[in-house]
Write a structure and sequence with these properties.
Radius of gyration: 25 Å
Strand content: 15-25%
Shape: globular
Number of strands: 23
Amino acid sequence: MLSLKQVKQSLESAGQSHVLQFWPELCEGERHAFLRELSQLDLKGLEDHCEGAARAAASPSASLDQHIEPVPPESIGSMRKSDKESLAVWENEDVSTLGLLQISENGVGVLLLAGGQGTRLGVQYPKGMYNVGLPSSKTLYQIQAERIHKIQELADRKYDSKCTVPWYIMTSEFTLAPTEKFFKENNYFGLEPSNIVMFEQRMIPAVTFDGKVILQGKGKIAMAPDGNGGLYQALVDHGVLEDMKKRGVEYLHVYCVDNILVKMADPVFIGFCVSKGADCGAKVVEKAYPAEPVGVVCRVRGVSQVVEYSEIQPETAELRGPEGELVYSAGNICNHFFTRAFLQDVAETYKGQLKQHVAFKKVPFVDTCGNQVKPTEPNGIKMEKFVFDVFPFSRNFVAFEVVREDEFSPLKNADGAATDSPTTARNALLAQHCRWATAAKATLLDERGNTVASTASVSAGDNPPAQCEISPLVSYFGEGLEQLLKGRTLPTPLILDEKQAKELQAQYHVSD
């Protein structure tokens, strides 16, 4: 720990001497805790951080319209548009570079970005612990853990292996302890604890518009996670790349915690990226409408990257091709593929070159008189890096378009919002499972005994789909259901878990 004299000198040289203005009022314990916090800060880089934040806040985003172009067709695959033969090759071709085979050989890991709290949801705990109201009451963490179980099982069955898909979970100061506690209380959802690696991203100070560090309390700096692009520094800080190398992990699937439909270690996506020789890849969905507030995967001056919707003029966003399709339609969903070698390159060479993004926030603070203030308008800047900021460093970037109704329904807002709420997430999963059951030639009945029609609708205002929930332990993505459900008429609510699946299987054997 640094001495008070050393900290004071560093703060003065960075133009941040106000940080210690309440030092005389602190008790001995508070002084010790504050000094420890300040010692952990990058005090040498503090001046650059604060000046950079103030500069970025004062500089409007430049329009990129004249420099952008769509990702070329040869670098895009699509679940909607690619032929069935290509999809089968990406998933199942029996060569050393593709899909399930890589999983069976312990070559694939998944990495969860889980540093944010559920503040917009109205809760103060990690989003992964949220229960959206499914019939089973499963949380996002449990659903994801069970999908890992199932993809391991599918790979083992196909290749007669005994594989492991390690689960790396990047947390923050806010989410690490509750996440660890939750996993322990739930017996790690049946996964081997040694194959779940939790690590913490760095925290950085929030600053005022004129570049001054904000005091949250008299002896506490207002800190925030450094964005999901803090991943690359955190991989170095916690030796995660070395862990991957030890385990033989060559490919990593990185995703955000809040997508209830995420396909963990998706063998089709992995297979597509590996077959293309990609070092970096992004899943995308077709934008719902030109002004949808999602980033667009495209090229800028010939380099692949994500352009924020605010950086594109409306007339460019509305451009359409010869068949009426949006030219810039590849919506980013924070679902990525990286080779370990590429991540090593980023860690060693590029992580210091990542773009800084400005977020204007309402940051609680103490005023010069020491009074606590809760601002009603944004008063501070939080600088963030984004996980996709490494795309420009890729030597071979690819995009893979998936069907939104099958793979993307994020949980961001509290119920009452029109989109991205617990209701829309729950409806998306239940509607998907109804489609799976119908595709398996089952007939579902509602509570009045009427046949349920399959639907892709996930709007919060729509009637909810039938209460049909299929455990990931029974089916990863709709496979294997026909042998259980074909020809059956099933009342809802229905929870098809492992126990129910065994009972249905036994009934088939009896009837045979």
